[in-house]
Model the fold of this input.
Amino acid sequence: MDNIRRVVPYVPGEQPAGKVIKLNTNENPYPPAPAVQEILNTDDAELLRKYPDPSIGPLVKALAKEYDLKPEQIFVGVGSDDVIGMSFLTCFAGEKPIAFPDITYSFYDVWAELFRIPYKMIPLKDDYTIDIDDYDGQWGGIIIANPNAPTSIELGIDRVEELVKRHPECVVIVDEAYVDFGGTSAMPLVAKYPNLLITQTFSKSRSLAGLRIGFAVGNPELIKAINDVKYSYNSYTLNRPSIVAGVASLSDRPYFEKICGKVIATREAAKKEMAALGFSFPDSKTNFLFVTHEKVPAEFIQKELKKRNIYVRYWKKPRIDNRLRITIGTDEEMAALYAALKEIISQCK
Ligand code: PMP
Done:
């Protein structure tokens, strides 16, 4: 059948059942805010019987308050995957190719293929950093993840601003999925640059990957255009429990800061432990490390860890096929990881 759309889909990390140490999909090891847990235990039947607010009003309002923005500057969707997908469809509708790094979130080329957007992958430098000079020229759009994934490296905010400033011809999307773990957000720049769109998620720093909440911040005209595309496809994107839980999550900033601080502290300790085990990695500003071992191949380590019920992420892809992306877990989970790694590495000596 010729009239079938055939695409090569994005492959998410494994979600194994049962009790395992899961360091493969960058989830937060701590529970969501207590207020979220209370709301999800509700017996309010209305929460499920009625359609949700198509404008996701309460959550948009709460985000505006939290980030000192106007509601018209915010778009909310079903995880940042939905938000970025809708943004591709809306903002990258021209004929010229869009640009993004060759090593980055591997959904970008999948969306470009799905929506038939021409694209060019710009190679990262050998040390996996982004050089914005490599983006000089005229594009149909640009997207970077900052900090980048799976590299974990942050591009300095001055470089981000320069990139946005150099490309008034197109929308520049900055995917800040991991920014809450010590990165600097470009959000203060949205008032200055109408071509800047920032996306963030509740999946990592707010421990709500299971609810699927993401949002974009940008100029009101851009946000309206994305909303119009959304309303042309599916009006009721975010479900009612997710809307109220999202609002509840935003109501407890001290808890948010506490768990981000815990992940950051464990990450900094992990840098020392992993270096002592013979691993090297870029300086992470995220909730994961992107490691390579001086002697033992990454794919072997991943398989050996899996035998011990410890899941980490490996890609058999050019330039990163001797690397593992390891999510920061609790201190106990990390201790079990170090013990397993010690055993695996000693077998190879
Ligand atoms: N951007 C990046 C860089 C990511 O790693 C992820 C997580 N897979 C996402 C966006 C999407 O996250 P979510 O849809 O859970 O918000």
Q: What stands out?
A: The pocket of 4'-deoxy-4'-aminopyridoxal-5'-phosphate is lined by residues 79-81, 105, 145, 149, 175, 177, 201, 203, 209, 214 (CB under 6 Å).
